Request: fold
Amino acid sequence: MSISSPRYTAPSVDRLGRASRTLAVLRHELLSRAGLGTLLVVALAYIAVTLIVVFDADFASAAGQLSVSTYEAPFQSPLWALVILIVATAAGAGSVAEDRGSRSIVLYLSRPIHLSDYLSAKAGSIGSWILIAAVGPGLVAVGILAALGVGSATVNLSAAAGFVATGVLAALFFTGLALALSSLTDRALYAGVAMFGLVLSLDIGVGVVSGITGNSTVLYASPVTDLTSVAEAAFHVAGPYPTDPVSSAVLLAVVGGLLAVAAYWQLSQVEVVGE
Amino acid sequence: MTGIVDAEGVTKRYGEVLGLNGFTATFSSGITGLVGPNGAGKSTFFRLLAGQLRSDAGTLTLLGHPAWGQGEFRRRVGYCPEGAAMFDWMTGEDFVTTLLRIDGFSRTDAIERAGRAISSVGLTDARERRIRVYSKGMRQRIKLAQCIAHDPELILLDEPLNGVDPVGRASLSALLRQLSHDGHHLIVSSHVLYEVERLTDQIVMISNGRTIAEGDIHRIRDLIDARPHVIELESPDPRGLARFLGSWDHVVSIEFLGTARLRVLTRSPDAFYAALPELVVSEGITVRAVHSADDNLDAVFRYLSEGMR
Reply:
């Protein structure tokens, strides 16, 4: 076969940098996850949290007992953690798994996109959805109360900070979890079941073990308990807390980060064999 | 080796199965056809080039870079994969624009380039439809559009004409020739030698994961022309189509497969592929898809493979 030198010269075109390309993936991912199920759960979170916080605060204000801890009401229900888990699953379980299953991951990685950019965009999308569901409703409720003149500026700002702190930690942990489990499989369903199974079994399991042994240290193994402790501390609820809030916060952030690193390592080993 | 793509002893295993078995070839400028029967290792080779798979042995470089992994050099490469790797919920235009944005083009540039690429593959009228309603041929076209929209130096096309209607095949073949004329380098895989022959004289033949021939196509096609060729057609009116095909001298037999498929045996595939688009246009007959069964090619590949031992 004859051998000849390349003769093609692509016209010089200004291209945007890695950050812009990552943002393009993020935008695409955010839109692709905006399915009916995700939007429905997020809408329910907004309605439920807003109603609970606004009515609780209004009644407490009328009784002259309004404080930052009044705003913690949504976290007293296990439904809050469940809603966050559902949103994280809807936004995250398929994020990598579906790309692998459909081989559309090829469309990303055959382009000048680094694996770290791809995963950063995926993490950004999952995290954004969790923040929308975890932080947004609380801030909306605080905004409504401020507009109605309920609560002082200090109380409302402290409550807003509580929602942000708890929501950010939830986003860090569940984003890492979703990325790690989603990168292990090419089926979103498997990743979703694993997310639910892991979080719920840990929550129930450590509760049982702690009850039998009387050892409260095992409670750190439950992300739901960790988040509850952080929320109670963030909203100045009187202790004792199930776990030390600072330790729980560090644990959630570190484990979330490690899970994201594990997802990167796992995906860097993956080959897309195809159908 | 100093080709656009160089493969030296590339081996890829899927467990016990060998996808590529010491594949060695140099792909130079212009269009090179990678021809082989189904399961020969063509898609494995493309996936290795696209950085989807990592070879177990040997070296594989494209544009001077190792094929495994990501990197900025990938902006010089366009890849049209086989199979349905698409974002079905998007419109064709959004699909191409999004991928251009991921390539680093500004929004304005991306929209402009997407429009041009979609127009060049003949999908302008369908650009605002969602991909999930596209026919197989339209999906092939939009995949081709995303592959060429960023003006890549090297274009990798894995079975790009598979499932495309006869008229579409002719126009897409013309587009590929134009891209080559403009200086792009193309590697086009197919299990249909006649498709590749209409694009280029340069071929690499692959069977059982090994190179069995490379270079000029004419010696190989002489062998193939000696054997009747099986072609399957999909049409809503197979009997009407058969009436016309039956009048062609080179057609040996016609067999009906169900209500919308025909199997045609021809002594001259060249003449068949040349005449079919004319028939479709002049008689207004709908042919949804053309498939070339590669049983007869297998015989030639076996012959060539044995000749190498």
User: Anything to note?
Assistant: Confidence is low (pLDDT under 50) at residues 1-6 of chain A. The radius of gyration of chain A is 22 Å. The longest helix of chain A spans residues 153-182.
